[in-house]
DNA sequence: CGATACCAAGCAAGCGCTTGGTTTGTAAAC
DNA sequence: GTTTACAAACCAAGCGCTTGCTTGGTATCG
């Protein structure tokens, strides 16, 4: 399953919005605005203008402004969980599975869904507690993917640190790339993936 | 020079505010509120109430609300640059210098100045561009501390990845701890420092 | 004809900040 | 040692504007 077919099957199951639909376009623009200016600084008038409607008309599609933020986050997590799963299943060794996860997360953060992923990281506090709880549940699913692979590497003796600590350190390291990584800067995502693996002392040459 | 004497000499030079002064107390409360609720969600009425004055009286001490955010960030960077420098000078080998820097940054993020450091990380976009430029200048000073040490480790052959990439990955990994690390969770800051070093394949046993 | 998608207008609340005036601390003048 | 002078610190009130959201109505389309 490639990225596109994963997206299409999620749309078919009504788990994410079709980017071509009115709702999908709004969520895409919302992600961009929320990332660029932050959730609080983005007004419903900004959001409406971005898709060419009146501010009041937004509330025909979403009950509240916060619902828009929640939808951005929920759909992003759903898509990325599916992408991670696919990426990992394609790899064989534990080390390659980790590399595949790192690569996939970097792709999520710095690729097509980057705007939405940045929102997920930096606008967390703007969600109501109830919504946070719901999003956290979804998150746990793909966190487990990481922990399983890291546990295996630990048992292989190639990872010296605690898996759950490593995962959290990696979450920070990879999320943070959104603030500095630019694909046109002479460093490809593959390069960056290798750098992360190298920093962990897991570079291929040493294996 | 211990932490306290560093703080006192910065106060004497008027580079950071005395925590006991009106200004110092306000900045402390502001850091807490900004971290807990975010800059935008914190009103000048919240800030004033936190120090027991009327909202209008704030503007006797600061020209604008943004000036308060800027002051929190600037003073935090000044203090931490001084702390980093001191921590590093106390160590001898390159590896120990790196460990000292990691330990010092974790302390900054999760210790006394943690609230202000979290603001520095998460409220960056709320600063005007002019203020951002000014804060960035201050930041460069201590980023160079890191790069020098990482360069040396690279030349020693114990670090396989690019120093500037490693620094950015570490920035993310360490900053992110503010979202999950709790000192009462059975993991001390020393433990955490060792975990970071271990993740990089630089654990002492292997040296 | 009924549902869906939208517009035009505006409301109530909350926002950062200003204003004019009062209290408080300090130190020289008498 | 009281008086005078003055600035710093603060209050009470509220202004002008923006905010998220509502309302009542209209176009579009199967």
Give a description of the structure.
The structure is a homodimer of 207-residue chains. Chain A contains ten helices and no strands. Chain A has helices spanning 3-12, 22-37, 44-51, 58-61, 65-89, 94-110, 114-122, 129-156, 163-180, 189-199. In chain A, helix 1 packs across helix 5 and helix 8 packs across helix 9. The longest helix of chain A is centred in the C-terminal third of the chain and has 28 residues, at 129-156. Chains A and B meet through helix 9 and helix 10 of A and helix 9 and helix 10 of B. The structure holds a DNA duplex (30 and 30 nucleotides).
Radius of gyration of chain A: 18 Å
Characterize the overall form of chain A: elongated
Quaternary structure type: homodimer
- The H/E string of chain A reads HHHHHHHHHH
**Average pLDDT over all residues of chain A:** 92
Measured between the Cα atoms of the first and last residue of chain A, the distance is: 29 Å
**Could you name the ranges of chain A where pLDDT drops below 50 across 5 or more consecutive residues?**
none
Question: Which class do the helix and strand fractions of chain A yield?
Answer: mainly alpha
Largest binding interface between chains: A-B, 36 and 36 residues
The total count of helices of chain A amounts to 10
Number of strands of chain A: 0
Helix content of chain A: over 70%
């Amino acid at each position: 399953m490639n990225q596109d077919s994963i997206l299409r099957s999620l749309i078919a199951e009504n788990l994410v919005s079709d980017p071509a639909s009115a709702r999908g376009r709004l969520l895409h623009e919302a992600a961009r605005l929320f990332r660029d200016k932050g959730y609080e600084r983005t007004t419903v008038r900004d959001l409406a203008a971005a898709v060419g409607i009146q501010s009041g008309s937004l509330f025909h599609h979403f009950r509240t402004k916060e619902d828009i933020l929640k939808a951005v986050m929920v759909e992003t997590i759903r898509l990325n969980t599916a992408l991670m799963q696919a990426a990992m299943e394609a790899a064989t060794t534990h080390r390659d599975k980790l590399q595949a996860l790192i690569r996939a997360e970097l792709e999520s953060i710095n690729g097509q869904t980057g705007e939405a992923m940045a929102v997920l990281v930096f606008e967390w506090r703007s969600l109501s507690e109830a919504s946070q709880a719901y999003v956290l549940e979804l998150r746990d699913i793909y966190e487990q993917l990481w922990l399983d692979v890291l546990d295996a590497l630990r048992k292989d003796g190639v990872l010296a640190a605690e898996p759950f600590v490593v995962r959290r350190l990696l979450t920070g390291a990879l999320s943070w790339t959104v603030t500095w990584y630019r694909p046109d800067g002479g460093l490809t995502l593959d390069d960056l993936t290798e750098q992360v693996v190298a920093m962990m002392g897991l570079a291929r040459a040493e294996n």
